[in-house]
Every structure is written in C-alpha cells, then in structure tokens.
Amino acid sequence: MNLNATLFIQIVSFLILLFLMTKVLYRPLQNLLDERINKVRSDIEDAQRLLAEAEENRRRAQEMLHKAQEEAMLIQRKAEQEADAYYRQQLQRTKEEMEKLLASAQAEIQENVRNAKAELQQEISSISIAVAEKILRREISESEHEQIIREAIEGIVHG
C-alpha cells in the first residue's frame, strides 16, 4: 500500500505541478509566443506593404525617367529644327546680301562704263577737234564742233 499511496501522491503532485506550470509558465509563454507570432506577422505585412510601395515608387521613377527621356528627345529635336531654321534664315540673308552687293557692283560697273565712255567721248572730241583744226588750219565754231563730235561718236558706236 505504501507503493500505491506514493504513486497516488506522485500522480497528484505531478498533476498539481502540471496545472501550476500550465497556469504560471505555459499560458504566459504561449501568450508571449502568440504576441511574437503576431508581431512577426505584422512585420511581414509591413514589409510586404513597404515592398509594394517601393515597387510602385520604382515604377513611377521608371515612368518619370521615360517621360524625361522623351522630353529630352523632343527638346533636342526642337533645338535641331530651330538650328536648321536659323541656318536657312542666315543662308537666305547671306544670299540676299550677296545679290545686293552684286547688283551694287553691277550698277557701279555700269556707272564706270558710262563715265569711261563719256571721258572717251571727251577725249575723242578733243582729238577730233585738234585733228580737224590741223586739217583745216583754222578755228572751228561751236556748232561745227558739235557736228563733228556727233559724227565721230556715231562712227565709233556704229562702226
């Protein structure tokens, strides 16, 4: 009986110890583990949310980069078009200036030719008068002088 009473006391002691351990250690430990599990879940959810936000931010950054590249290309094209237009405008201005200079030079050449012809006519008339005076050995009147000049000029121009 001694064995049965000891066994019974050991079983009761074990059950009391088990009950106390469950109340004192197991439940607080279980609560602590549950809190830790909940905290880990919360951290995982936060991490997933942050990862999703980071992915969204990366996507937005990619979009912004793509838009910036497109804008840069548009700006470059516009600058090239403006430079081409400016080049054409400057080329046109240069052509116009060259045409003006050419026209001015042609007008100046024509004026010089007219002046040279007038001087040549003066010289020819002076020479003609001198030749005529020597031939005639006398003075020529103004009207005779003009007649001789006209005839000489006509001879040079038509001849």
Descriptive keywords:
159 residues; 2 helices; mainly alpha
Tell me the domain tally: 1
Largest sheet: none
Q: How many angstroms separate the termini?
A: 173 Å
Strand content: under 5%
Helix content: over 70%
Summing up helix and strand content along with how strands pair, one would put the structural category as mainly alpha
Order of helix and strand elements from N to C terminus: HH
Oligomer: single chain
- Any low-confidence stretches, pLDDT <50, length ≥5? none
Note the overall shape: rod-shaped
From the alpha-carbon coordinates, what is the Rg to the nearest angstrom?
A: 60 Å
Please report the number of helical segments.
Answer: 2
What is the typical, i.e. mean, pLDDT? Answer: 85
What's the count of strands?
0
Topology (SSEs and partners):
Layout: H1 2-136, H2 142-158
Helix pairs in contact: 1-2
